[in-house]
Structure formats: structure tokens, C-alpha cells
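Record type: monomer structure entry
Structure origin: computed from sequence
Chain ID: A
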Amino acid sequence: MSFRPQGIEHAHEIDLDGALEFINTLDLDDGQLIEHFARPADAAAWFRDRRLIHARDSVGWTPADLDHIRSVRAALRDVVDGIVLERAPDPESVRLVNDVLDHGPRPQLELEGAEIRIGHRHLSPPAAEALVPIAEAIVDEIATGRPYRFRICANDRCRWTFFDTSPTGRRRWCDMKTCGNRAKAARHRERLRTSREAPAST
């Protein structure tokens, strides 16, 4: 009998852009703070839609789950902001992120007929475990990537976090089509105002 190892079944993963999208679920929209996780079900649906939890695990989330998710989101934001602004994050933020990393599923061998596959064992509640891939994506970039490419949108009425993949590494806006164009339009209006207010030469 031969055994053919198979890959991890239904791994729950997210890339760095997805992790930053999670941070941006507390959002400034033209200066107004928007909470995309207003209810526990909103958070559950977000994780379910990104396949960070099984569909069956997206029911029954509690206000305590929501509070924890928001706290971890704030902690990750604090860590990313600290890198961008070159300041130390709050120690409580670091503790919270480290605590998240301790709640991941554990790999295990599963035998199916004559084949071995790698599955995983869930050790924590879905609302806690769903945060693990997000924290891992941020921490992996800090450890082995280019954390100096983390950015905060220069639009003070947006302030999204994003990762700068531009060739020059000098991107300032989360999206040139929105915040970048608004900034250009604002500069243009300011130049027109200044030119109108300038005293006429004699």
C-alpha cells in the first residue's frame, strides 16, 4: 500500500491586501467615520465571504465576539501606523496581536483510504480563529517582506492603510482615481483662489 500526501484541506488564508482591507473596515468616507462591522453578523459575513471561516460557523456571533474583532482591528491598525509614522505601537496592541497568533488551527494528518492528507484541527472559536490569517499576513510582511512600503493615504478625509507596490515606492494615495484626483482638484481650486486674491500689479 502506498501513501500519497495531499495538501492542506480548505486552508483559511488571506493575502496582505485582504488583511489591510480588514483594517479599513473602520473607514473614513469624506471625513465621516463609517463602521462596517456595526453588528456581529456583519463581521461574520465579512469573514465568511473571504472563506476565513466555514459557512456553518458564521451564525451565533455575539457582541463579545464583535468587541474582540474591533479591538484586534485597532491593534493591527496601531502596529501599521507605528511603522508608517516611525513610532512604537502601544504595548497592548502588540499583546493583542501576539494573542491572536496563538489561536490558529493546528495541522493534523487525516487518512482517507490509502491516502494521507493534511487537514487541520480547530482549537478556538471561529471569531477568534478567523483573525489568525489576517494577523499572520501583517506579521509575515513585517518579518520577511517590505514593511517600509506600508502607507496611510495622504487624504486626511480618508486615511486608508495600503501597501505601496509602485515601482518608485512613492505612492501617496490609496487610489489615484479617488483620493489622488480629489487632491489634484483641491490644489487646482487653491491655485485659482490664490490667483484671484493676489493684488493686481501696477
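Annotation 1: Helices lie at 16-23, 40-49, 63-85, 91-101, 126-129, 132-144, 176-197.
Annotation 2: The domain at 6-174 is CATH 1.10.3300.10 (Jann2411-like fold).
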